[in-house]
Design goal:
Number of strands: 11
Structural class: alpha/beta
Mean pLDDT: 89
Order of helices and strands: HEEEHEHHHEHEEEEHHEHHHHE
Strand content: 15-25%
Helix content: 25-40%
Largest sheet: 9 strands, mixed
Radius of gyration: 20 Å
CATH topology: Rossmann fold
Number of helices: 12
Length: 354
């Protein structure tokens, strides 16, 4: 294992320093990114009632015509400031020509938590062991953002400029669960029937560090139970993870996720425009897939050139996916169809299509 890791490190360094690096995908035009616009939106959720959240909008400056859209769902706990929600991904997609919207999935206070329990018809004891409201709020917030985009396309400075038929939804970590829910994944919020938040509007989805069955309400087959959470996801989806994409363990048997388990969602997806981007290197981290280079460098062990390479491969391939399945660019379609996602990394990336 040490020899394999050493060889991979050497190959990464050689690739990064080479003047003839393998071809990464680049969008045909890049744009300056507008200053972030923060705004509040309010909506009424099914079951649990009124909710307000902050969203951040970033626009590609100077792009003419209708703007395709990427909605990003952040990971972790609730946030109040949308400007700090997946800023690296948000700026990247805005610079590639996408109107980028990032909601802050704020947490609930005690009264709002109680409304969640009542809305799901749960006793306090049942609610204490059900899937928490943050998981319920994420897909509902994403749907509310799409509703807001429809309103903004009819009035105001962006009227007529939003390509509502060209929306992608992406998320990292817990945010990927929100994106997959909107794509059509079913999840158990209580012990009874799984719930779906499928919305027909998005054209494509990105699940970065996706959750595994047994986590966040996702499930796969069991005895006399032939269904999985992901059976109804029939639109294009890009999943990404790597050998170091774990979460901190609390005891010997309580790892939240492992790299192998993060691949299960992709394995269970129906075939048809599904892609897995997997970095075979334990120097990746969970935060690598949020494009947070700072986390990659956090302990001073991983070389900066490797962190930069991880981000470059991931960003390039994700933009190719968006340009292929949202913008329908022939060059991006051809790039995804070929082996270049793996070749651009010198073979460090496992690129699986189905």
């Amino acid at each position: 294992m040490f020899l394999r890791h050493t060889i991979l490190t050497i190959s990464l360094l050689a690739l990064a320093c080479s003047s003839a690096a393998q071809p990464l995908y680049n969008p045909p035009v890049t744009y300056p990114v507008s200053p972030t616009v923060l705004m509040q939106i309010a909506y009424t959720q099914p079951v649990t009632g009124f909710r307000s959240i902050q969203i951040a909008l970033r626009e590609p400056v100077g792009k003419a015509g209708r703007l395709p859209v990427v909605i990003w769902s952040h990971g972790g706990d609730g946030q109040a400031n949308a400007e700090n929600a997946l800023p690296e991904w948000s700026r990247l997609t805005a610079s590639a020509g996408y109107l980028t919207v990032t909601p802050a999935h704020r947490g609930r206070d005690a009264s709002e938590f109680a409304a969640y329990c009542v809305g799901l018809n749960l006793s306090p004891a049942e609610c204490a062991v059900s899937l928490g409201p943050a998981n319920w709020d994420r897909p509902n917030d994403i749907i509310a953002v799409m509703n807001e985009l429809e309103r903004m396309n009819s009035t105001g400075p962006l009227a007529g400029r939003i390509a509502l038929d060209k929306i992608a939804v992406g998320g990292w970590s817990a945010g990927s669960a929100g994106a997959m829910s909107v794509a059509g994944a079913s999840r158990f919020f209580t012990a009874t029937q799984p719930r779906s938040f499928m919305d027909p509007r998005p054209a494509a989805f990105l699940a970065l560090s996706p959750s595994s069955p047994g986590r966040l309400g996702f499930f796969e087959t069991s005895h006399k139970q032939p269904n999985t959470s992901w059976d109804q996801i029939h639109r294009p989806l890009f999943a990404a993870s790597g050998e170091g994409d774990t979460k901190k363990c609390e005891g010997l048997s309580a790892c939240e996720e492992t790299p192998t388990r993060r691949r299960i969602a992709f394995d269970r997806l129906p075939a048809g425009s599904k892609y897995l981007f997997y970095i075979n290197d334990t120097d990746t981290r969970h935060g690598t897939f949020s494009l947070d280079t700072g986390e990659c460098l956090a302990d001073g062990v991983v070389l900066p050139v490797k962190c930069a390479a991880f981000s470059a491969w991931l960003a390039s391939t994700a933009l190719a996916f968006l340009d292929a399945h949202v913008e329908h660019r022939p060059l991006a379609i051809a790039w995804l169809a070929g082996p270049l996602a793996g070749l651009s990394s010198g073979g460090a990336v496992e690129w699986v299509k189905k």
